[in-house]
Amino acid sequence: MNSNQIIRNTLYVVATPIGNLADISERAQQVLRSVDLICCEDTRHSARLMDHLGCTTPLLSLHEHNERDRSAMIVERLQSGQSIALVSDAGTPLISDPGYVLVNHVIDAQLQVVPIPGASAVITALSISGLPTDRWRFEGFLPSKTGARLKILNALATDHLTLVFYESSHRIEGSLADMAIAFGADRPIVVARELTKTFETVLRGTIADVQQAVAADNNQRKGEFVVLVQGVATEVVGIGDERVVALVNELTAILPPKKAAAIVAKVFGGSKKLYYEYIVALGSE
């Protein structure tokens, strides 16, 4: 079967541009033109993209307030043989956007869900941030009230992973202020604003540096934001460190080398393989 051929009884989860309309893929365009229906957050917003693409497929609103009610009807249409696309206002659906309920209804009905990948603000921001991207944690939008926001940020304060948040123009200053409290004003941070759009900017520095830049320029408080915070640095502990040696001695008395190495790596970080080789070498002495 041609991979570009539209399949009946199928929900297509289609990524759309996060700003620059040229970023939409040819495959996404073909799917949007070929399906029987497009589900979208805001029909007026998505209509502008469809007009740009010359796509005349009917639109149906699907958002957080009606998703549960409409999912059953959409599944019925899929079961009748239709193919349907799901899009969000921008980027990849379900990533801090509606679609979770619908996708699970479709899966429960044992119908096919097909991804049409493309733009995602979180991935785009990570790729240019300069912060570690091997392990990261996406928290989406923080609560609007300071108390609830600080509760979440305080719980993340000792996390070693790069932290990623979405934020809006009317809350960016408040969130930065709370991050300075929870993480410390000297924690490295990146604020990516209006990604792929005309007025895209990326601010890098400490939280204090970025707070100052945002406060000094009204334009830096406009638009849509991805905020990335460097995780707490993991302490580098050498194999010869007395703490490592003590734990190795304790564990090897009761566990095989492979399990002991895994525990040591979890406690101190580093390579399980190197710890394993170290433990085996100790045993051969």
Protein topology:
Elements: E1 10-14, H1 26-34, E2 37-40, H2 43-53, E3 59-61, H3 67-79, E4 83-86, H4 100-108, E5 112-116, H5 121-129, E6 136-141, H6 146-156, E7 162-168, H7 172-183, E8 188-193, E9 201-206, H8 207-216, E10 224-229, H9 242-252, H10 257-268, H11 272-284
Parallel strand pairs: 1-4, 1-5, 2-3, 2-4, 6-7
Antiparallel strand pairs: 7-10, 8-9, 8-10
Offer a few descriptive terms.
single chain, 285 residues, alpha/beta, 3 domains, five-stranded mixed sheet
Query: What is the SS-derived class?
Result: alpha/beta
Mean pLDDT: 93
Which architecture of the largest domain per CATH? Answer: 3-Layer(aba) Sandwich
Distance between the termini: 61 Å
Which strand order spans the largest sheet, edge to edge or round the barrel? 3-2-4-1-5
GO molecular function: rRNA (cytosine-2'-O-)-methyltransferase activity
Function: Catalyzes the 2'-O-methylation of the ribose of cytidine 1402 (C1402) in 16S rRNA.
Pfam family, one: TP_methylase
Protein name: Ribosomal RNA small subunit methyltransferase I
